[in-house]
Write a structure and sequence with these properties.
3-stranded antiparallel beta sheet, 4 helices, alpha+beta, 123 residues, Alpha-Beta Plaits
Length: 123
């Protein structure tokens, strides 16, 4: 009887652990930027999104690796937060006003337009 209870608890523990990891997603997002100040700004913006547990931007590849709880947030929300601090992503472009306030070393080459994933359908 005691062995059955212990075994049940062990199984429940492992199942619970699996469910916690299942909710975490890791994605890479291209984010425009240049330097260490950009890195700090991008990572801080991503980490401010509720549900994000890790954000690591590489200035060489221009990729942000972000780990988040899929039940609390998504990549789109992370990209919006990053655009609000002045950095373009594939799906969200920073406003001219915010981009123009970036320090000179942080001003990256901007593309003409960002693809809007919601274009062509209503919400």
């Amino acid at each position: 009887m005691m062995k059955t209870k212990v075994l049940s608890l062990v199984v429940m523990f492992f199942f619970g652990t699996f469910m916690v990891f299942e909710a975490n997603k890791t994605k890479k997002v291209e984010v425009k930027g240049n330097c260490g100040m950009c890195e700090k700004r991008i990572e801080t913006a991503a980490l401010a999104v509720p549900g994000v547990s890790k954000a690591d931007w590489d200035k060489e590849t221009k990729n942000l690796e972000v780990v988040f709880d899929n039940s609390k947030t998504n990549v789109d929300k992370v990209e919006v937060a990053i655009a609000k601090v002045g950095h373009d992503t594939k799906n969200h472009k920073a406003s001219e006003e915010v981009y123009n306030k970036l320090p000179g070393c942080c001003k990256y080459e901007r593309t003409a337009e960002v693809v809007d994933p919601h274009a062509g359908h209503k919400h």
